[in-house]
Design a protein that fits this description.
- The complex is a heterotrimer of chains A (246), B (505) and C (301).
- Chain A contains 14 helices and eight strands.
- Chain A is of the alpha/beta class.
- Chain A has two domains: 119 residues; 112 residues, Rossmann fold (3-Layer(aba) Sandwich).
- In chain A, the strands form two sheets. In chain A, strands 2-1-3-4 form a four-stranded parallel sheet, with helices on both faces. A four-stranded parallel sheet of chain A has the order 6-5-7-8, with helices on both faces.
- In chain A, strand 7, helix 13 and strand 8 form a beta-alpha-beta unit.
- In chain A, helix 5 packs across helix 7.
- Chain B is α/β, with parallel strands linked by helices and 505 residues long.
- Chain B has three domains: 125 residues, no CATH class; 179 residues, NagB/RpiA/CoA transferase-like (Rossmann fold), CATH 3.40.50; 56 residues, no CATH class.
- Chain B has a six-stranded parallel sheet, with helices on both faces. In chain B, strands 8-5-6-9 form a four-stranded mixed sheet. In chain B, strands 11-12 form a two-stranded antiparallel sheet.
- In chain B, helix 10 runs parallel beside helix 11 and helix 17 packs parallel to helix 19.
- The longest helix of chain B has 24 residues.
- Chain B starts with 7 loop residues before the first helix and ends in a 5-residue tail after the last helix.
- In chain C, 19% of the residues lie in helices and 20% in strands.
- Chain C is of the alpha/beta class and 301 residues long.
- Classes of the chains: A alpha/beta (246), B alpha/beta (505), C alpha/beta (301).
- Strand 9 of chain B pairs antiparallel with strand 11 of chain C, so a sheet runs across the interface.
C-alpha cells in the first residue's frame, strides 16, 4: 500500500525520532512510505484557538499535499482528529465547497498509527522487542474523538519483553489541551500533577502515548521533577528491535 | 410593604425594542475576572479541591452504574437530542401551544425578554398577593436572573428550600454546581454554617449539639424550614419540563421541598427558560429516564411532580408561568451553537470534567459552570462578555460522552473560540500576532523549514542542562511547571531529504 | 452577599443600557399585578426574535424512537418475563431506596370486588410496628384494607365502614387508630399532627421502583401524602408496569393533566458530598405493601 506520512509539525521540528520510527514500523510491514514535503502543519492549533481564517490556509495546504495517497498515517491522534472531524466543517462554514469535498475525501483516508495498524492492516504484532516497564496514557483525542479503543494496548501487549503496567485514572486528561497549557497554566499544571502521580504509582520507567504533544507536556513535568520516568512515543516502542536494544 | 415604592428592578429594566437581533442576556452570567485568574485562586484552596474531587468521584461511579443498566441508553440519548432539536426548530409554535394550554387550564402566562423584566413580573405578582415572603424550589432560571436579590430590594424575603441552596444562602455564598450548588462544602463546613446562621435567618435555629453526619444535617434543615413551608402563601419554582400539548409542567427533585412549594401555597409562580419545552406528554418517557440517571445517578429521583394549570381542591389556586428569554433567542440564532439549548441541566458534564474537578464552579463566574456553562454562558451574554470561558477546556471530550442529549460541547467550544477571536480578538493583540505569523510561516514549506532552523537556536537556551527550563514569552507559562526538551540538531524533513537525496515530491 | 457583576440586573445599580420608556416597568399597576401591556409587547417581541433566529429554517432529523417502547419491557424485565418477576424487580428497587416493603400473597376469593384479608393484616401490622395512632385516610380508600385494625375511633362519617371486622389484630395491636378523613379538608396543621397516611396508587414502575399517585380514589390530594412523616402505600401486582415508557403510556390522555406525584423511595438528598441520605422534607418513611395473587390466581382487580 502506498502510504503517506503526515509527520505533524511537532514531530518534524521537535521529535524527528518519532517520525523515523513510524516510517520504520510501516516499512517493516512491507509498505512503501512517502513523505510529501509540501506538508507543514495541519492547522489544529489555529482551529482550536479560534483562528479559523488562518487555519484555512493550512487546511488547504494539507489537503493538497496528501491528494492521491491511498492512506495517510500520522503518529498523532489529535492531528488525525482535526483532519477527520474539523476540516470539512471548517471549509464548509467558509463557503468553500470544493475544499470541503476534498477534505471529506482526505478524512476517509487518514489514520492514526495504532488504528491503521490494528484496524486497517489487521496487525497487532509488529515484531517489536522492548524490555522495559511501561505504562500507557490514552490521549483524549485518540480515545474519544477517534475512538481507537484498545488498538494501542493490543499493539503494546504483543511487544516482546515489555512489562505493561496499568495507569490509574488512565482516561483522565493530562491537562495539555494545546494552547490551554499556556492560557490556563495553573489548571493545566494541576491536571498534570495528578497524571504524574498516577504514572509514578505504576513504578514504570517509560510513559508512552500516541501523541507527542501530550507526551511533551507529561515529559516536561516529569523532567522538572527529575522523576526519572522517560516519555517515549508508541511508534518508538513499536519500532524497537532486539538488535537495537543495548 | 406599608409604603409601596416603585420597584427599582423594574425601573431599571432593559428593553431592546426595535433591535434587529436578539439581545444578550443579563443577570448572574458573568464573573468579575477571567477564568484563568479565578481558577488560580480556586486551585490554591486544597480543601475545595478535595471536596469537589470526592463528590464528583462518587457521582461518576453512581452514574456509570445506572446508565450501564439500560440496554437502550444510546437510543434514548439520540431520541432525547432529536426531540430537543425539534423543539428548537419550531420553538415559536410550541411556545404558543404551551401558552394556550396553560391558559385554558387556569394558569396565566407571562413573557420576559430579559432578567430584569422577569424580576419585575415576579415582584409584581408577589406584591399583588400581599405576601412579604416566598419559598423557593431550586431553580437555575431564578438564579440566572438574580430573582432573590430583586425581591429583597422590593422588601420581599425569598427562602431557598433545597438543602444545597439553603447552605449557599445561609453561607452568603455562591452556587458552584448546577445540581448540588454547595458541592464545594463538606459536612463539617455545612455544620458550621448551620450553627452560625440558621437562627439569624429567622427560621428554627440548629441545635448546639448538631453533629456533622449528613442525616443530622438533613434533619436540621427539615426542622429549620418546616414551619416556613406550612405558613408561606407564595412559592416560586423553576421547571424541568413543560409539555406543549397538555400545558403540563414537571419538577424533578429529591427532598420533598419541591412538593411542599408546589402543593401548599395559594400562589405558585414558575420561571422557566424558553427552551424547557417538550412537544408531547409521551416525550417524557425519554427524559424521565435520561435525567435522573445522568444527574444524581439514580434510577429515579425520589419525587417528580406534574401539574397542569389549576386543579380545584388540590394545590395552588393561582398559577403563573413566566417564560424567560434572556439571551436564549440570541443563542438560538447561531446554528453551530443552538444545540446548547438542548441542555436539561443534569450536570453530568460537570461531574466528568477534569477542569471543573480542579477549579470548582465559582471560577466560571456564571451560575452555569463547567463544560455546559462554558458554551452556554458566552452565548447567553455574547462572547465579548465571557471571552475566557470557551478556552476553559482541554477539549478532552469527556463532557460529550456523558451528555444525555449529546451536545457536542468540544466542537461548540472550538466554534465559540472562533467567534471570540473574530469579535473580541483585539483583546489579545500579542497572541493574534503570534498566531498570524505562525500561520504565515506554516503556509510555505520553505518558510517553515527556515523557521525550524531558527528554532534550533533554542538549543542554546538549555545547552548546560540538556533541557530548557525557562522560556521567554509567550511560552513562559510553559516552563512554570514543565521543562522542554532541546530542539533536535536535525529536523525530520532534513533527515528525510538526506535519505531520499533531493526529496520526495 | 453575591458578588457577581450583574450587568444592569437588580435595582440600585444603574442600568447598563437605555431604559426604553415604551416597554417600561412591568411593575404593579393595581392589585392584580402587572399590567397586560408590557407582557403583550414582550410576547410579540420574543416570538419575533425566535422567528428571526430560525431564519436558516433548520430541519432536524426526525425523532427515531428505537429505544424500548411501552409494552417492550425493560432491561431488567424483558417483555414476556415470568409472572411475579415484576414484583421482584419493584421490591428490589424499593429496598434499594431504603423503603420498607411487605409482600402479601392472596388467594382469589372468586369475587373480584372483595379485598383480600391479607392486605388488612399487613396494614394492621405495619401501623402497629410504626406506632401510628392518627392515620389520614383519603376518600375512596378500599374499606377492607383497614379491616384488620382492632379498634377505631374515627370521627368522620364513613369510619364505620372500616370498623372492626372480627379479625384479631396482630399481637401488640391493642390501642386504637384514629382515622382522619379529608372530606372537609384537613388543615396543614391537622396533617402535620397526623402520624401517617395510607393510600393506594394509580400504578407502579418496576424498573425504577416508582409509585405514581394521581389523586384518584384512595389517594387524596397531594398534601395528604406529603405532610405526614409516614406514608403507607398498597400496590397491587396488576398495577405494576415494567418501564417508565409503560407508565407514560398509561397516563397519556386525561391522566396526564391530573396532578401527578411520582414517588421513588422516601424523601432524600444527595446535597452533602453527593451521598444519598434518606429523610428530609417529605415523608421520611415510605412503606409499601405489594399484593400478589397466589399461584394459579389472577390478581384481584
Amino acid at each position: 500500500m502506498r502510504v503517506a506520512l503526515l509527520v505533524t509539525c511537532l514531530v518534524d521540528g521537535m521529535f524527528p525520532d518519532v517520525g523515523q520510527a513510524t516510517v520504520a514500523v510501516l516499512e517493516r510491514l512491507g509498505h512503501q512510505v512517502e513523505v510529501p514535503l509540501a506538508q507543514t502543519c495541519c492547522g489544529q492549533m489555529h482551529i482550536n484557538t479560534g483562528y479559523r481564517r488562518d487555519a484555512l490556509r493550512l487546511v488547504r495546504r494539507t489537503v493538497a499535499a496528501f491528494e492521491g495517497y491511498e492512506a495517510v498515517v500520522a503518529p498523532s491522534g489529535s492531528c488525525v482528529g482535526s483532519v477527520r472531524h474539523q476540516y470539512a466543517g471548517l471549509a464548509a462554514a467558509r463557503g468553500d465547497t470544493g475544499l470541503a469535498a476534498a477534505a471529506t475525501d482526505l478524512a476517509a483516508r487518514t489514520f492514526e498509527l495504532s488504528e491503521f495498524l490494528v484496524n486497517v492492516l489487521g496487525v497487532t504484532d509488529v515484531g517489536a522487542h522492548y524490555p522495559h516497564r511501561v505504562t500507557y496514557h490514552p490521549t483524549c483525542h485518540s480515545l474519544r474523538m477517534l475512538g481507537v479503543g484498545e488498538a494501542p494496548l493490543r499493539l503494546l501487549r504483543a511487544v516482546r519483553g515489555i512489562q505493561l503496567e496499568e495507569l490509574p485514572a488512565a482516561e483522565s486528561c493530562c491537562g495539555f489541551g494545546g494552547t490551554f497549557a499556556l492560557k490556563n497554566p495553573d489548571t493545566s499544571t494541576a491536571m498534570l500533577t495528578d497524571k504524574i502521580r498516577g504514572i509514578l504509582d505504576t513504578r514504570a520507567e517509560i510513559i508512552t502515548a500516541g501523541d507527542s504533544s501530550c507526551l511533551m507536556h507529561i515529559g516536561g513535568g516529569l523532567s522538572r521533577l527529575r522523576a526519572g520516568v522517560r516519555p517515549v512515543h508508541l511508534a518508538e516502542i513499536l519500532a524497537s528491535e532486539p538488535a537495537k536494544v543495548a | 410593604m406599608k409604603t409601596p415604592t416603585p420597584t427599582p428592578a423594574s425601573a431599571s429594566a432593559l428593553t431592546f425594542l426595535g433591535m434587529p437581533t436578539a439581545p444578550r442576556g443579563v443577570g448572574a452570567l458573568r464573573g468579575d475576572e477571567p477564568f484563568p485568574q479565578a481558577a488560580r485562586r480556586a486551585l490554591a484552596d486544597t480543601q475545595l479541591r478535595r471536596n469537589i474531587a470526592n463528590a464528583t468521584g462518587t457521582i461518576r461511579r453512581k452514574r456509570a452504574a445506572v446508565v450501564g443498566e439500560l440496554d437502550d441508553w444510546a437510543e434514548l440519548r439520540a431520541a432525547g437530542a432529536a426531540v430537543k432539536d425539534d423543539v428548537l426548530a419550531h420553538l415559536d409554535q410550541y411556545l404558543c401551544q404551551l401558552e394556550e394550554q396553560v391558559t385554558a387550564r387556569g394558569g396565566t402566562v407571562h413573557w420576559a425578554r430579559d432578567a430584569n423584566e422577569a424580576n419585575a413580573i415576579v415582584t409584581g405578582l408577589v406584591r399583588a398577593t400581599g405576601a412579604q415572603e416566598v419559598v423557593k424550589v431550586k431553580s437555575m432560571a431564578t438564579q440566572e436572573i438574580g430573582l432573590n436579590e430583586a425581591l429583597a430590594e422590593a422588601g420581599i424575603s425569598a427562602w431557598e428550600t433545597d438543602l444545597a441552596e439553603l447552605i449557599v444562602q445561609l453561607g452568603e455564598d455562591r452556587p458552584s454546581h448546577i445540581l448540588v450548588p454547595a458541592i464545594h462544602r463538606n459536612r463539617a463546613e455545612i455544620r458550621e454554617i448551620f450553627l452560625r446562621r440558621m437562627g439569624a435567618a429567622g427560621g428554627v435555629p440548629a441545635s448546639p449539639d448538631l453533629t456533622d453526619s449528613p442525616a443530622a444535617l438533613a434533619e436540621a434543615a427539615r426542622g429549620h424550614l418546616r414551619e416556613r413551608f406550612l405558613r408561606t402563601r407564595v412559592a416560586i419554582s423553576g421547571a424541568n419540563f413543560a409539555v406543549a400539548e397538555t400545558g403540563t409542567l414537571a419538577v424533578v427533585e429529591s427532598e420533598g421541598n419541591g412538593r411542599m412549594c408546589l402543593t401548599l401555597p395559594e400562589t405558585l409562580i414558575t420561571v422557566m427558560g424558553l427552551e424547557k419545552i417538550v412537544p408531547t406528554w409521551r416525550d417524557l418517557e425519554i427524559f424521565l429516564q435520561l435525567l435522573p440517571r445522568s444527574s444524581t445517578g439514580e434510577r429515579m429521583n425520589p419525587y417528580t411532580s406534574f401539574w397542569t394549570g389549576i386543579t380545584p381542591g388540590d394545590g395552588p389556586r393561582e398559577f403563573h408561568l413566566v417564560l424567560l428569554d434572556n439571551g436564549r433567542t440570541a443563542t438560538l440564532a447561531d446554528p453551530a451553537g443552538r444545540a446548547a439549548l438542548r441542555c436539561i441541566r443534569c450536570s453530568a458534564c460537570l461531574n466528568v470534567c477534569p477542569v471543573y474537578e480542579r477549579t470548582g464552579g465559582h471560577a466560571y463566574g456564571s451560575i452555569y459552570p463547567g463544560p455546559i456553562g462554558a458554551v452556554l454562558s458566552p452565548q447567553l451574554t455574547g462572547v465579548a462578555d465571557n471571552p475566557s470561558l470557551p478556552y476553559a477546556s482541554t477539549l478532552c471530550g469527556a463532557c460529550l460522552e456523558a451528555c444525555p442529549v449529546a451536545i457536542d460541547i468540544p466542537s461548540m467550544l472550538v466554534h465559540l473560540r472562533g467567534r471570540t477571536v473574530e469579535q473580541a480578538g483585539h483583546e489579545h493583540p500579542f497572541e493574534r500576532g503570534v498566531m498570524k505569523t505562525a500561520a504565515w510561516m506554516m503556509a510555505s514549506p520553505r518558510r517553515w523549514s527556515a523557521a525550524l532552523r531558527m528554532a534550533r537556536l533554542g538549543r542554546f537556551l538549555g545547552r548546560r542542562r540538556g533541557r530548557i527550563t525557562l522560556l521567554p514569552p509567550p511560552l513562559a507559562a510553559w516552563t512554570t511547571s514543565r521543562d522542554l526538551p532541546l530542539p533536535p540538531a536535525e529536523t525530520f524533513r532534513e533527515r528525510w531529504a538526506r535519505r531520499t537525496e533531493g526529496g520526495d515530491r | 452577599m453575591r458578588t457577581w457583576r450583574r450587568r444592569g440586573a437588580g435595582a440600585g445599580a444603574p442600568s447598563a443600557g437605555p431604559a426604553a420608556p415604551s416597554a417600561g416597568p412591568t411593575g404593579p399597576t393595581g392589585p392584580t399585578g402587572p399590567s397586560a401591556g408590557p407582557t403583550i409587547a414582550a410576547r410579540a417581541e420574543v416570538l419575533a426574535r425566535v422567528r428571526t433566529a430560525l431564519g436558516d429554517r433548520p430541519e432536524p432529523a426526525p425523532v427515531s424512537r428505537d429505544y424500548r417502547l411501552a409494552g417492550q419491557g425493560s432491561a431488567s424485565l424483558p417483555a414476556g418475563s415470568a409472572r411475579g418477576a415484576a414484583v421482584q424487580v419493584l421490591v428490589d428497587r424499593l429496598l434499594d431506596y431504603h423503603a420498607l416493603v411487605r409482600q402479601v400473597s392472596v388467594g382469589g376469593s372468586g369475587s373480584g370486588s372483595a379485598e383480600p384479608p391479607g392486605v388488612a393484616g399487613a396494614v394492621a401490622a405495619a401501623l402497629a410496628d410504626r406506632g401510628v395512632r392518627r392515620l389520614v385516610r383519603p376518600a375512596g380508600l378500599p374499606a377492607p384494607w383497614l379491616a384488620g385494625l382492632a379498634e377505631l375511633a374515627g370521627q368522620a362519617g364513613p369510619a364505620g365502614q372500616a370498623g372492626p371486622a372480627g379479625q384479631a389484630g396482630p399481637a401488640g395491636q391493642s390501642e386504637g387508630v384514629e382515622l382522619l378523613d379529608d372530606d372537609a379538608p384537613l388543615s396543614v396543621r391537622d396533617l402535620d399532627a397526623a402520624d401517617g397516611v395510607i393510600t393506594g396508587c394509580v400504578l407502579a414502575i418496576a424498573e425504577t421502583g416508582t409509585i405514581v399517585l394521581d389523586g384518584g380514589p384512595g389517594q387524596g390530594r397531594r398534601a395528604l401524602t406529603l405532610i405526614p412523616d409516614y406514608h403507607l402505600v398498597v400496590v397491587r401486582e396488576d398495577q405494576i408496569v415494567a418501564s417508565v415508557a409503560d407508565a407514560i403510556a398509561h397516563l397519556d390522555g386525561a391522566g396526564a393533566t391530573r396532578p401527578l406525584t411520582w414517588i421513588s423511595g422516601p424523601s432524600a438528598t444527595s446535597d452533602i458530598e453527593l451521598n444519598r441520605v434518606e429523610g428530609v422534607h417529605g415523608p421520611r418513611t415510605l412503606e409499601v405493601i405489594v399484593v400478589s395473587a397466589a399461584v394459579g390466581q389472577e390478581p384481584a382487580a
